[in-house]
Design goal:
Blueprint lengths: L8 E5 L2 E5 L5 H10 L3 E6 L11 H8 L3 E3 L11 H6 L13 E2 L4 E5 L2 E7 L8 E5 L4 E5 L17 H12 L8 E4 L5 E2 H7 L5
Parallel strand pairs: 2-3, 3-4, 4-5, 9-10
Antiparallel strand pairs: 1-2, 6-7, 7-8, 8-9, 10-11
């Protein structure tokens, strides 16, 4: 999804879908959804940075669906509008179709598609990861990358909490074959994180 800078994810069952981290222009999302004949039922963000939520308010309003964000990141909504301006995207604020506070729980987001919501503060106060145990998929946002970790020098970042979150993910002992989708860059696996990321411990 242009601008090509952030990994967004569409999970679908039949003609219904859920969108994770809708970066880019809402108009481009509408084109893609129409081409794929998909109707979203919800939007989930891994955290509140603008490059992960830019299209969320407009899509939420267009489809009359909730977009979920951890309440710890509500104050980040609208922060970084200069970045959106740089990419030619509209600014966002809490006045633009407010997010719904995310509950930390296991939830069935689509028929027979269940995910666990995991708190991963550090990159932001309200960072989360989404784990699909049956599909062996982990959507991890900007907490950790193939061989590095997310920034903690932005508003609300906390180095100690970031390392605690990474340790908690490590201690989940997910199968090595679990596919890890990062907020930026190419996907990896738990096995490759063990092998290539010195912070994953």
């Amino acid at each position: 999804m242009p601008p090509q800078n952030t990994n967004s994810v569409i999970a679908s069952v039949g003609d219904k879908c859920v969108i994770f981290d809708p970066w880019g222009r809402a108009s481009d999302w509408l084109t893609v959804l129409t081409e794929r004949k998909l109707t979203p039922v919800a939007i989930y963000a891994t955290h509140g940075h603008p490059d992960h939520i830019s299209a969320a308010p407009t899509l939420s309003e267009h489809f009359n669906i909730p977009w979920f964000l951890h309440s710890g990141d509500f104050r980040l909504v609208g922060w970084g509008n200069d970045l959106l301006n740089y990419f030619g995207l509209a600014p966002i604020s809490l006045n633009d179709n407010r997010p719904t506070a995310l509950e930390i729980k296991q939830t069935e987001i689509l028929p027979d598609l269940t995910m666990n919501i995991i708190e991963t503060p550090g990159h932001t106060p309200g960072g989360v990861a989404y784990h699909f145990p049956n599909e062996q998929i982990l959507i991890i946002g900007d907490t950790i990358f193939q061989d590095n970790i997310g920034r903690y020098d932005l508003p609300g970042g906390d180095k100690k909490m970031l390392f605690q979150s990474i340790s908690s993910l490590y201690n989940m002992h997910l199968p090595d074959t679990t596919n890890v989708i990062h907020g930026h860059g190419t996907d990896t696996t738990i096995a490759l994180l063990h092998k290539n990321n010195p912070y994953f411990k």
